[in-house]
Amino acid sequence: HFTLRSSEPVRVMAWAPGHAVREAGPWTSAPAELRLDALKQTTPAAGAPLQPVTLLLRIVDQDGAPIPEALLLVRSAAHPEDAPWFAFAAADGRARCGVEAGELSVEVYAPNRTPRKPWLLGSRLLSATSEEIAWSVAVASLTLEGLPAMEPVELSREAEACDLITSSEQGEAAWAFLPPGAWAMSTASGKQSVELQPGALRMRWKPD
Predict the structure, then answer these.
(1) Confidence category of residue 40, pLDDT binned at 50, 70, 90
(2) What is the DSSP-derived secondary structure letter of residue 162?
(3) ∠ CA 165-166-169 to the nearest 5 degrees?
(4) Is 118 helix (H, G, I), strand (E, B) or coil?
(5) 64/159: higher pLDDT
(6) pTM of structure
(7) CA nearest to 97, candidates 105, 89, 87
């Protein structure tokens, strides 16, 4: 059980061992319960005991700056249907994840976001070694100015709603650690699209 108070609609991400990551919302009031779907578990073959190892990663952006709180989901490449291991990057971008030896499929998602395709910063196949693996991913940031003050602004990608925030009293809305590519911002007064490149962008609100 948990209690959360917010003046704005919220999304919830939940996870439990052996279950899929679940996202729900946005909610203005929480439902009574949130059900998680159990994942299929693979039984190791006889004579093939598990070999636990530690995967060491450092997640940085295109300029070498760390990406704190980035979410990493790690799966066995041989059994991608199994429940993933997961870890969060520390303030210096470093993440440690206990995994099994072998080839691994690793995905990194934007900080404080759910593991959905619009928030995917990168994916690759890796094998855990004793050495730290540096991983550079491209990220963008966006500041939208000239909005009506204190107005809800929805951020979407490929027609999928991804975030909902309220503009500031100065009429600005900002997002950091966005995957580059096509995004759209919508308010009650219209919609505007942008193709984000790696780096920072500040632009004025001009509905399409």
Answers:
(1) very low
(2) E
(3) 150
(4) helix
(5) 64
(6) 0.77
(7) 87
What separation, in Å, do the N-terminal and C-terminal C-alpha atoms of the chain show? 43
Q: What is the CA 123 to chain-centroid distance, rounded? A: 12
The residue type found at 41 is Q
Tokens of 62: 């295109």
**Backbone conformation region of residue 146, classed left if phi is above 0, alpha if psi is from -120 to 50, else beta:** left
In this structure, what DSSP letter does residue 45 have? P
pLDDT value for 166: 95
* Burial (Cβ within 10 Å: 0-12, 13-18, ≥19) of residue 46: exposed
pLDDT tens per residue, range 83-123:
888 899 999 999 998 888 889 999 999 999 989 999 999 99
- Kindly report the average pLDDT of the chain as a whole number: 85
Strand 152-157 with 181-187, pairing: antiparallel
| Token pair of 184 as six digits | 């759209």
